[in-house]
Amino acid sequence: MISIKWGSVFFNVEGEEKIRRAFFSKEPFFEYKRCRIGEKLERYFRGEKVNFDFEFELSVSDFTRKVLEETMKIPYGEIRTYKEIAEKLETSPRAVGRALAKNPIAVLIPCHRVVGKNSLGGYSWGIELKRALLKLEGIYLP
DNA sequence: GAAAGTAAAAAAT
DNA sequence: ATTTTTTACTTTC
Predict the structure, then answer these.
(1) pTM of structure
(2) How many CA atoms, within 13 angstroms, populate the side-chain half-sphere of residue A25?
(3) What are the tens digits of pLDDT across the range A34-65?
């Protein structure tokens, strides 16, 4: 359970062996601890390419889990549209967005790499934060 | 079960 | 460039 400062926000991770939750907040939720997750996140937020090969404990519905698993396959520095994910799962883009909106593990499951085709999509912690994350990975949006 | 609410897309205007 | 269908899944009665 750690909090890492990035810009003006803190990124919190909850869970020991398996990650349960990850989210942004203005204040730190936990004490910073030096650990495997923390070190990787420090490098990630510095702009390095990092693979988050951790185990997750997803307390979500089957459908949402499928969407999140598909999202995890998106490589660093690439983006997908809601439609692309939807086609792989044989569902509708709208349902994908619905599922991603409930992603309990921000950043580690790269839901910020999923954008809309016409609009830019949305983000639970603010569209600006989503842009900042994409910029960090070298993706520029119109 | 039915109805409302979406982090969408495509089509129409 | 905005508005209006169409759409499938979750959430909440």
Answers:
(1) 0.90
(2) 12
(3) 899 999 999 999 999 999 988 999 889 899 99
Pairing relation of β-strands A114-115 and A80-81? parallel
Determine the Cα–Cα distance for residues A44 and A141; give it in Å rounded to an integer.
20
Q: For residue A89, which nucleotide's C1' is closest to its Cα? A: C8
Alpha-carbon distance A53 to A130, whole Å?
A: 21
- Between residue 91 and residue 130 of chain A, the positions with Cβ below 7 Å from nucleic chain C are 91-92, 94-95, 98-99, 102
Residue A35 annotated in active site: no
Residue nearest to nucleotide C9 (CA to C1'): A95
Q: Rounded distance, CA A5 to CA A26, Å?
A: 9
Overall fold of domain A60-136: Arc Repressor Mutant, subunit A (1.10.10)
Q: What is the pLDDT of residues A68-103, one digit of tens each?
A: 999 999 999 999 999 999 999 999 999 999 999 999
Domains in chain A: boundaries: 2-55, 60-136
CA distance A91 to A95: 7
